Amino acid sequence: MIVIGGSSSVELARDVAKILGCEFIQASTTRFPDGECYTRLDRESIDSDAVIIQNTYPDGNLIEMLLIRDAAITLGAKRITMVIPYFGYARQDRLFKPGEPMSARVMCDILDRICDKVITIDLHKESTLDNFTHAHKDLKAAGPIAEYFRGKGIDMVLSPDIGASARAKDVGDRLGVPYDHLEKTRLSGTEVRIAPAKADCAGKRILIVDDMISTGGTIIAAAAALKQAGAVSVSVACTHGVFVNNAIENLRGSQLEKVLCCNTIDTMFSEISVAGIIADELRKG
Predict the structure, then answer these.
(1) Which residues pair with 193 in a beta bridge?
(2) How much is the CA Rg of the chain, to the nearest whole Å?
(3) Would you say residue 113 has pLDDT above 60?
(4) Would you place residue 137 in the very low, low, confident or very high pLDDT band (cuts 50, 70, 90)?
């Protein structure tokens, strides 16, 4: 097996290869003056299965993945596994208005034609993978997140809403602490109360877990509300740190003690590695 790292996931791919004890190739990717992608694998041939680790977000990374795959096949790669740490367009998994495309399905249709297996991490909805006809697996980052916070004094794990409560339960169970979800209660036309649905957060060191942070607005508001309700500290850990607009600046200026994410996207907060769970899945074949 050879692990190939695209430009979005070089260090993650290197770590996976190291855990597996197999060869690592970094794709040499540049852009032409007109913006088109050029990539090359510095090998004469590939006489084994190939694993390509690369995000499909933003759009240019999808094109790079397609080109890396073609280069690997041309060199003789036998079986192609695509590891997509952050799957772009996964949130558009249903039609909201007439005339819209189902973007998640479109991405699956494209990738399904050119690979033998797809591995993703904490998809917005795991059912998105039903669009693949080839082998597929969505890995969960709850294990690495819980391991990172083990022994760090977390008293309670919360999810931002009831829809993500399974993730809070998973992390909470692994840490051996209670879990709950946050609820918004409108008190008036201008005032909203954010608090755990059942548990008391007073005197607790709280960890909020979510699949992604985009603008950070919900998490920042939740942290302020929890601190006001008596929480000793509030930290957040997400799988995918997308961090659009001024999210990083706003998060730094908030009442959050720690902001952490996994290394599915390379950011300044990417301290939690998912290399181990990827390697475990690849060992299964």
Answers:
(1) 185
(2) 20
(3) yes
(4) very high
3-state helix/strand/coil string of the chain:
CEEEECCCCHHHHHHHHHHHCCEEEECEEEECCCCCEEEECCCCCCCCCEEEECCCCCHHHHHHHHHHHHHHHHCCCCCEEEEECCCCCCCCCCCCCCCCCCHHHHHHHHHHCCCCEEEEECCCCHHHHHHCCCEEEEECCHHHHHHHHCCCCCCEEEECCHHHHHHHHHHHHHHCCCEEEEEEEECCCCCEEEEECCCCCCCCEEEEEEEEECCCHHHHHHHHHHHHCCCCEEEEEEEEECCCCCHHHHHHCCCCCEEEEECCCCCCCEEECCHHHHHHHHHCC
Phi and psi at residue 50, to the nearest 5°:
-125, 140
pLDDT digits (tens, 9 = 90+) for 79-105: 999 999 999 988 877 788 899 998 999
Rounded Cα–Cα distance for residues 162 and 82 (Å): 31
Instruction: Pull the structure tokens for residue 180.
Output: 């709950």
C-beta neighbour count of 39 within 10 angstroms: 20
Q: Give the residue among 5, 3, 12 at the shortest CA–CA distance from 265.
A: 12
One of 169, 184, 204, 284 is an active-site residue; which one? 184
Does the annotation mark 184 as catalytic? yes
Give 193's pLDDT tier (boundaries 50, 70, 90): low
Torsion angle in degrees (nearest 10) through CA of 129, 136, 273, 177 = 70
- The pTM of this model reads 0.93
> 54 with 9: CB under 8 angstroms?
yes
Q: Are strands 80-84 and 192-196 parallel, antiparallel or unpaired?
A: unpaired
Residue 153 contacts residue 205 (beta carbons within 8 Å) = yes
pLDDT in tens, 39-52: 999 999 999 999 99
Cα separation, 211 vs 241, whole angstroms? 9
